[in-house]
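Record format v2
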Amino acid sequence: MTRVMATSAAAGRAVPAVRAVPALQAALAAEDAAIFGYGVAGAHLSGSRKSAAEQHWTVHNEARDTLTAMISALGATPVAAQAFYRLPFEVTDAASAAKLAAYLEEGVTRAYLGLVAVSDRRLRAFGALAMQGPAERAAFWRGTTQAFPGLDVPG
Amino acid sequence: MLAASAAALPALLATTGCRSSDLFAGPDPLAGRPALSHDVITLQAVIAAEQAMIKLYQAAVDGRLGVDDLAGLLAEHRQHLGRLQARLVLPPGFSAASPSAPPFASPFASPSASPGAVPARVTIARLRAAEQASAADLLRRLVTVQPALAQLFASIAASDATHLAALGG
């Protein structure tokens, strides 16, 4: 099965309190997409940018393992990674690879922001803290910071 | 005539043995100002902190602190403030100002200075400390407020974290 490489837009929308497991599953799906995507992006990068991509790929693998354990601990089955993800645009060079990396990190940021809408305080704090890493990495690949990472607002 | 009638209402109610709550289904207009909700009080404090952050950045910009795109970071803090203020809707008679000083005044000022005071010379270390304190304060507060406000706090905290990196973190 092929999944379009994008996290649910609803994850980043301001919503009433949501249930924990679907929000964790959305974060896991975003991490899986990022792991796949960095494999594609890394092939078009070199030097320090390639090293950064490798480090970020490792971080996403660790985050995937953490989320998998959290979902299992809640008695649910973690969503499986897809064998292939359709890229949001063609990646042909270093510039489009960096653009893909930023896109991936923005998707992960949105997914963790979805966790901030759950009623469980620990999970909410976890989501808020976890979104800071991808927000920083997105800024790195984009080359600029944002006023509202993860939120669908201008700026 | 109307004003006189309104002023005489409590006395009239007392003589008839009625309380105002017997006549009105909604909030009692004679019971004084309603208490502000926890979310509103929290929002006021976060707005005050963001205003202090903007003063600090403005001082850094005015002092020509050598950081790339300092004005860009300042602009993002102004966006934070605008978004926060847009969420604040107060009943008539309430001040938008926070009843308390910013919770992280210490990064902004020396211990001898008044809370929230901007130091004469702003350093990168001071900006970094302020960004760190802001992000930590928002993370602490977001677990106690409604989900939509929590998400705004989380997003601003993440923005603060990216500013730290931009400042050389």
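Chain A touches chain B through 33 residues (CB under 8 Å).
Residues 6-16 of chain A have pLDDT under 50 and may be disordered.
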